[in-house]
Write a structure and sequence with these properties.
two-stranded antiparallel ribbon; about 25% strand; alpha/beta; 7-stranded mixed β-sheet; 11 strands; 11 helices; single chain; about 300 residues
């Protein structure tokens, strides 16, 4: 649909009405009076309406001009608000990032990153969702999340990804457990113990299931829990062992022991393939990639 006016013409029209004259409007807009007069005349011609009563020393709006003035003021205010919103986004004054993070990373890796990003961009709202990596992939594809942390493997190849973390998965045992004094633990020995595991859909559980399948082992699952403090308490009391990212186990009563051979997880930030990141989302991705954290 072709409109009979543009924003510039409406700005001139409103300025003339507000200043009650072409000369005053021209001074306000820093243009020649003839330009203002011609713009308004063209607007009247295209609308096939007379917008101003032109008296010898003053002008006033016609009824048609009054009607247009009301709509023009509202339209210009909305246009200004849209322009300001785009300027704010361009300068990253405002915006929103919806990100999904697995619980281990949400508790032990991302807090300083999230706080650091918020300090740099205080106007950007962060919405953080905790879920397993596979559910996060589904939420990204469904448009429920802008970004998510996924395992960098074949199942996530349908997403756009940026690798950001390589972290060791280790055996977590009580500090008085026989494994605690070892340099490493074989998968066979690991699966000989009762295990405390996350539920299906989390990279923690997928890692254990893949390890069992690769070696033909059967997991003896004593407890299932996605609650990290509860899992640690169970392990600390000797009711089972588990596996965590190494950084998760740095506390009294627990020991971290490498697998033999050592096991690593590759994790990426991901978003829907073919979608364009907003400036706020791109800023978050850039911030995470600017702060690499090598495994200890």
């Amino acid at each position: 649909m072709s409109l009979p006016f543009d924003l510039r013409a409406l700005q001139c029209f409103v300025s003339v009405a507000d200043h009650r004259g072409f000369s005053a409007a021209a001074r306000d807009r820093h243009v020649a009076q003839s330009a203002i007069s011609q713009t308004v005349a063209n607007l009247e011609k295209r609308l096939e309406l007379t917008l101003f009563h032109r008296h010898e020393r003053r002008i006033s709006l016609t009824p048609e001009g009054e009607a247009l003035y009301t709509h023009a003021k509202a339209l210009l205010e909305r246009a200004e608000a849209a322009h300001l919103a785009m300027r704010e986004l361009h300068g990253l004054v405002k915006g929103e990032v919806r990100i999904g993070i697995p619980s281990m990373l949400g508790s032990y890796y991302f807090p300083p990153l999230l706080m650091g990003f918020k300090a740099r961009h205080p106007g950007i709202r962060l919405t953080v969702v905790e879920a397993g990596t596979r559910r996060l992939q589904r939420m990204i594809n469904a448009g429920e999340l802008d970004l998510g942390v996924v395992m960098d493997d074949a199942s996530s190849q349908g997403l756009e990804r940026r690798h950001f973390l390589r972290e060791e998965m280790v055996v977590c045992v009580p500090e008085d457990h026989p494994f605690a004094g070892r340099a490493s633990v074989s998968p066979r020995d690991f699966f000989s113990e009762p295990l405390v595991l996350f539920q299906d859909g989390y990279f923690h559980r997928e890692f254990v299931d893949a390890l069992a399948e690769a070696g033909g082992h059967q997991a003896d699952v004593a407890f299932q829990s996605n609650l990290i403090p509860l899992t640690k308490a169970i392990v600390r009391q000797g009711f089972g062992i588990t596996t965590f990212l190494r950084r998760v186990i740095d506390e009294p009563g627990l020991a971290a022991v490498s697998f033999a051979p050592r096991a690593w997880l590759e994790l990426s930030l991901a978003w829907a393939r073919g979608s364009s990141l907003s400036r706020a989302e791109q800023a978050f991705v850039d911030f995470v990639l600017e702060h690499p954290d090598q495994p200890r």
